[in-house]
Design goal:
The chain is an alpha/beta fold and about 375 residues long. It has two domains: about 190 residues, 3-Layer(aba) Sandwich (Rossmann fold); about 160 residues, no CATH class. It has eleven helices and twelve strands. The strands form three sheets. Strands 3-2-1-4-5 form a five-stranded parallel beta sheet.
């Protein structure tokens, strides 16, 4: 159950959710638009978001320019293939124009989500400086001067809560906030936990339905695990292949954690859950072997690059999104319900994660 309908969104939430490309952020802003919850920012956080957008665009521009240079000089043979021609015609990344486009999206989110501002002038600078010298959160692990904006934001929120006798959720996965304690500020590490609590609160009059759909989830756990495993392997095959090749992927075991109920679609009896899961799997990894290669500075490339193959076993924790279609009938047992289960998304290890695992196993 919600302890408050006030929600503060930290910069980290926008970064970790790729700014405006996140379904969970869109779900949260819809709740703000409907005035189900009250969303808040400070001008400090808004400026941090804008700065991070600019930094990521600049980083992407450098990577894109390097890619275009390399493919133009070393990959000309690909022009003979129609499907590769778009790689040579990638549009130029205009920093100012693209920054303006994303800034406009931020303003739309703020307006449509009915976000309000907590004045940062409410911060008590004396308290902030005192925490800095005592190395208290968010200055954990040393006197990190770059944490002053976060400390000012927290102080402003604390004083806003005291002034208006309010509590507020502070959403951030930043580890510096983990140890922060307050009677007014409730730290939550991610959006899916908050969305779960909002949906359960909204459906407090539908408690029987919520209990029923959770029972349906539990009853179909073996099917859900199968769907997650299939999507996990499929996603690795789809996304891996630029620097390494992964083959013969086999899942050994998958364990689910408690699901978060993030969305209900009344129109088609669909219920959306997000869930963290532990997965243990094996795979064959094929990658470039530079042990006998040499670099030619004039040609700007490596010669005599071989191929290496390693068998790996990896145990990681990832996240999946599950859609369950089930029509609720009062008194119907979960095991009797007609259910359709779809895994719409799983996060997977990157190519670098798999390569590191291959090299570690070899060592």
């Amino acid at each position: 159950m919600l302890k408050t309908r006030n929600v503060y969104i930290d910069t980290e939430v926008f970064i970790s959710n790729n700014f405006f490309d996140s379904t969970n952020l869109k779900r949260l802003f819809q709740f703000g638009k409907d005035e189900t919850i009250n969303l808040y920012l400070t001008e400090i956080t808004e400026n941090e978001i804008r700065n991070n957008i600019r930094e990521e665009i600049l980083t992407t521009q450098n990577e894109l320019n390097l890619f275009k240079k390399n493919i133009a000089s070393k990959g000309k043979v690909l022009k003979n293939f129609e499907k590769f021609k778009p790689y040579f015609d990638l549009p130029k990344l205009e920093i100012d124009l693209n920054l303006k486009e994303l800034s406009n999206k931020l303003e739309e989110f703020i307006g449509e989500g009915k976000i309000k501002y907590i004045p940062y002038e409410l911060a008590d600078i004396k308290v902030v400086v005192d925490k800095y010298f005592k190395q208290m959160s968010p200055f954990n692990g040393g006197k990190k001067k770059h944490e002053f904006p976060d400390a000012i934001v927290l102080s402003a929120i604390e004083n806003w809560c005291k002034k208006y006798d309010q509590k507020i959720y502070f959403i951030s996965g930043d580890p510096d906030f983990k140890t922060y304690t307050s009677g007014n500020i409730i730290i939550l590490p991610n959006l899916k936990i908050l969305l779960d609590q909002i949906n359960r609160q909204l459906d407090i009059d539908k408690k029987k339905l919520i209990d029923w759909i959770l029972s349906v989830f539990e009853y179909n756990e073996h099917i859900i695990i199968e769907k997650i495993n299939e999507k996990f392997v499929e996603t690795i095959y789809d996304e891996i292949g630029y620097t390494i090749e992964a083959t013969n992927i086999e899942v050994i075991e998958t364990t689910l954690f408690d699901p978060s109920f993030v969305q209900e679609n009344d129109s088609n009896d669909e219920y959306i859950f997000q869930i963290d899961f532990d997965i243990n799997f094996t795979a064959q990894i094929i990658f470039d072997d530079h042990s006998l290669s040499f670099y030619d500075k004039e040609d700007d490339c490596y010669y005599n690059v071989g191929k290496a193959q390693r068998s790996i076993e990896m145990h990681i924790t990832k996240t999946a999104e599950i859609a369950i279609e089930a029509h609720y009938e009062l008194g119907e047992e979960p095991e009797s319900a007609g259910v359709s289960v779809t895994c719409t998304y799983t996060s997977t290890p990157s190519e670098y994660d798999l390569l590191d695992e291959a090299e570690n196993d070899y060592d």
